[in-house]
Design a protein that fits this description.
By secondary structure, the protein is an alpha/beta fold. It is 32% helix and 22% strand. Keywords: Hydrolase.
């Protein structure tokens, strides 16, 4: 594993790079939740599954977290910083690899909002926050509905932030537990690994590269 910082207009982002043991099939970029970090249980499970499936993985710490703040930056700043990280990795470590965007909670929202602009081949959502707890009228379904590439959502059955709907090109896997997705990390890893393998084995998927 290697760690590097990438400059953005909103301060440096920190990237934790995990390299697949052999030729990489693709690269997975994962963002963290609003008040959490890249060490979350579900992010660790997704990272292990992706490495086993032959993907490089980048865990991305947003500039506000690198600066030691817990309160998240506005969405436009999160998105801009993420896209700067994507551009830097696409020109360097992940050159010529298909890029899969992902993250947990707030990080999943960023991945959805930036998928088109960043050229994502697919999107992985861990604990997507459909709405604030107890406020279903303040939903964020448009962020999911705006994604035109394949999507996997891994969600806790008792998530107070709601349950996304399945749709064409969008899979939903429900696991025991709540928004933290700590109850069944092995299940989360299996869901992610299976989806990645099917995604990258589909006709027309990019061939492995170094």
């Amino acid at each position: 594993m290697g760690t590097t910082e990438i400059d953005t207009p909103h301060g440096p982002a920190r990237v934790h790079l995990h390299r697949a043991p052999g030729p990489a099939r693709a690269a997975l970029l994962l963002g963290h939740g609003a008040g959490g970090g890249v060490g979350a249980v579900d992010l660790a499970a997704a990272t292990s599954a992706a490495l086993a499936a032959g993907l490089h993985v980048a865990l991305v710490e947003q500039p506000y977290r690198v600066a030691g703040r817990r309160a998240p930056a506005p969405a436009r700043q999160l998105d801009a910083a993420w896209l700067d990280v994507v551009a830097a990795l696409a020109a360097g470590e992940f050159r010529d690899l298909p890029l899969i965007f992902g993250g947990r909670s707030s990080g999943a929202r960023v991945a959805c909002r930036t998928a088109a602009a960043g050229g994502a081949a697919a999107v992985l959502c861990l604990a997507f926050p459909v709405h604030p707890p107890g406020k279903p009228e303040k939903h964020r379904r448009a962020e999911l509905d705006g994604v035109t590439v394949p999507v996997l959502i891994v969600q806790g059955e008792r998530d107070a932030f709601g349950r996304p709907d399945e749709a064409p090109g969008r899979e939903l896997v429900l696991l025991a537990g709540d928004h933290a997705l700590k109850a069944d990390p092995a299940g989360a890893g299996r869901a992610v690994g299976d989806w990645l393998d099917r995604l990258l084995s589909a006709p027309g998927s990019a061939p492995p590269t170094g």
